[in-house]
Amino acid sequence: MNYTRNGREVTIECSNTKMPAASTMPNYWSYNYEAMLSYLELALDGVHGTVVDAWGNPLAATISISGHDNTYSMVETDATHGDFYRYLQPGTYTLTVTTPGYDPQNVQVTVTAGQMTPITVVFGEIDQPQEISLNAGWNLISLNVVPASYATEDIFQGISGLIQIKNAAYSHMPSMAAHFNTLGNLAVNEGYWVNMSAPATLSVDGNPVDASATPISLKAGWNLVSYLPATAKATATALSSISPYLQQVDHMGESPATMEPGKGYWVKVSQACTLTYPE
Fold it and tell me: What integer is the mean pLDDT of 92-118?
């Protein structure tokens, strides 16, 4: 049983008699109950973990200890609750957690003597909508999420008061016939002008863009670019990858000290280069 379940559990026999008489059971209990109860309590030392998805649903997972376990020593979660127990001596360990459909995760834990160490391992992410406030008139915006569809009409679906969307080369106006609209899709590496007749909020569902893994190619001169990081950063920090070539930054006619999610920026460089935002 222990071998086939990949565990290190043990069975303790309290008598060398195969089938002791029932009348002797109270004596065996008196001899061993303190040790047996202490043994049960020790089973709670170490790591008590739960493995769930982004919505909190339990996952069937396998947990091994990096550099500590061999092939036949691991624990599995209870499929109903997603929890597991792993007895460990005091120390710092790296748990490798695997579950079907996701990349494995390595989780570092520190176990203290005589204590239970609780952890929760979450797989996957819930799409977080990017919300962009649009003022009446012109707005310079950009996306930092990956939507299910990049189609301009899909992204702006349900936004009333939309007059025009354009970038440096193409345009989309809902009031015009489809064959006159040249901006069919948006992209996460570009900024866009949006003209509104009234204020509104643009909400775009999608996974966050990995800013540091999404380089943006720039040509010499002016470029209308997106801002990809999830948080605001000082302009000098955000554009540090192109600092030798950076000449000017503009947002709505102003030179910003800080760059913010949801906004688009004109960036002027002295030569062709690649902008890579920091994490």
Answer: 91
Environment class of 77 (CB within 10 Å of its CB; exposed 0-12, middle 13-18, buried 19+): buried
Cα–Cα dist 165/157, whole Å: 13
Q: Which amino acid is at 232?
A: A
> What percent of the chain lies above the pLDDT cut of 70?
94
DSSP string across 136-192? SEEEEE---EE-S--BHHHHTTT-TTEEEEE-SS-EE-TTS-GGG----B--TTB-E
Q: For residue 200, is pLDDT > 90?
A: yes
Does the pLDDT at position 1 exceed 50?
no
Structure tokens at 186: 């948006």
Instruction: Determine phi and psi for 212, rounding to 5 degrees.
Output: -70, -15
Domains of the chain, residue spans: 22-123, 127-279
Instruction: Give the Cα separation of 14 and 10 in Å (integer).
Output: 13
Closest CA to 59 of 41, 83, 28: 83
Average pLDDT over residues 10-21: 80
Q: What angle do CA 57, 58, 61 make, to 5 degrees?
A: 140
Residues 6+ apart with CB under 8 A from 23: none
Q: Please, what is the average pLDDT of the chain?
A: 90
What's the confidence (pLDDT) of residue 40? Answer: 79
Q: Give the Cβ contact number of residue 267 at 10 Å.
A: 25
* Parallel/antiparallel/unpaired status of strands 264-269 and 246-250: antiparallel
How confident is the model over 45-60, as a mean pLDDT? 90
CATH code assigned to 22-123: 2.60.40.1120
Q: Do β-strands 221-226 and 233-234 pair in parallel, antiparallel, or remain unpaired?
A: unpaired
